[in-house]
Amino acid sequence: ADGSFDLVVNIDNIEHVVDAGAAVREMRRVLRPGGVYAVTTPCTWPGKDVSSYHIREYSREDFEALLVRGGMEPVRFLLETPYYFVLARRDDGWGEAFTRAGRCAAALVLAQLPYNLLVAALGFGAEALLGQGAQRGLAQKLVFLGVLGGTVVLQSLFLYVAALVVLERRGALQALRALPRTWSRGFWAALFLGTLLLVPLLPLQMLLDQAPRLVGRGDPDLVAWVVGLQALVGLLAWYVLAGSATLVYLSLVAGRAGEEAP
Known about the structure:
The protein is α+β, with helices and mostly antiparallel strands. The protein has helices at residues 20-30, 60-69, 93-103, 105-130, 138-158, 161-166, 172-196, 201-208, 211-216, 220-253, and strands at residues 5-11, 31-42, 72-79, 83-90.
């Protein structure tokens, strides 16, 4: 039946199939959305003799193209010689991906709620420290850096919660309980990504801190342009972060998905 399996394994078979593209499409048909296709096949290179028992042997580029044409997205080559051992996932396309995300919307919102509450509490705490107007200069900068660092750490702790909900089809509470597994496998990668993507935002924030001075000098339009640019750069940074988090999750975290029942 369509969409019946989370995992399909194809060991040393596809090189014997005349219509390999149809075979890959059939594997995709029986996989559930986001399901994994594990496949092995002998590799080839210029000058290598093809076995008389094989219809075709593939270069890496040709094998990747075969998987993509069949509706699979190659995720990782675990072995490249003398055999390819590839993990691919069912590529659902934009329409199916958005439909699946819509079904997960409530769980996504609830699973992200602790992160948003903790970040809000961090911000309120900083305002309480600075609210009396007594903190200026170095103290103010230290509080700002503390809030910034705390936000990045919290973001790193919760970065993979969306993948747990969408890719592993967990509920909100199940995803939160599974977060420690993502910390042991991917926390440092998440921290690095979050810190790296702050780099283009910091100069814009520093310029915005000078907004009153710029307005006083008669440059309010410049402030508006900086705000717009900050929003655009922030959106691009989140887009890159979400994509990178998915790749890290699939390569580092999902490898132990079977150790814990969903």
